[in-house]
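Escalated from tier 1: zinc ion holo job.
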Amino acid sequence: MKITFLGTGTSQGIPVIGCNCDACRSDDPRDKRLRSSIMICTDNYRFVIDSGPDFRYQMLRENVKSLDAILYTHEHRDHIAGLDDIRAFNWVQKRAMELYAEPRVLKEIKSKFLYAFDNSYPGVPKLSLHTVNEQEIKLGDMSIQPIRLLHYNLPILGYRIGKLAYITDASFIEETEKKKLEGTEYLIVNALRKEKHPTHFNLEEALQLIDEINPRQAFLTHISHQMGLYREYSRELPANVIPAYDGLSFNVD
Ligand SMILES: [Zn+2]
Ligand SMILES: [Zn+2]
Ligand SMILES: [Zn+2]
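Tier 2 regenerated the structure:
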């Protein structure tokens, strides 16, 4: 299983429009962050988690020629609003895109992309919707365990796929849900900035979760320009933690 970080930024991305901070002016490519998403590929199946506003460019950058499904964490715009661009895959693959999300998120997709469900209008995105609850689901050969997270007061989903777990936009995880992360070897978790934030883990809270789960390797994602410069904050982390950056990939056996 190969994992690729398509984007690792918070909702505004980095650079932020009109911002003059060090991170936004940095010419280190690791300081340029599109909206958060990962791609997971096996020999015969490829899917992404979330399709934010940068989805089109992410597919072009990674030279993706086919895509089997999109699995959603939640309905915020930085996670769904590139959905219209799946039309390219509809055209090439001659079939609807398979979308997996919990009922509230599917409802939100139906209302925000109402035109996609109008079969009488030509050229609209073709979507096939599948409901995710808290039970394990199957995508290709992979078994995926949803993990319930809180994003302030919004219940959202993270996912455990074998040795890998992807947690984004969390600000709280119940102990019973943390149990589902036991034995994770590769943990991806959101870390917005150093200061506390009401709706996302800050760096300290992300590191605390990593310490509890104790994966072989942890990656930070959904990072804000307020975190500062990659070359500075990446030096201050425990040995098994690296801040992810766009385009980074790794294999999970
Ligand atoms: Zn987000
Ligand atoms: Zn900035
Ligand atoms: Zn969010």
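The chain is about 20% helix and 25% strand.
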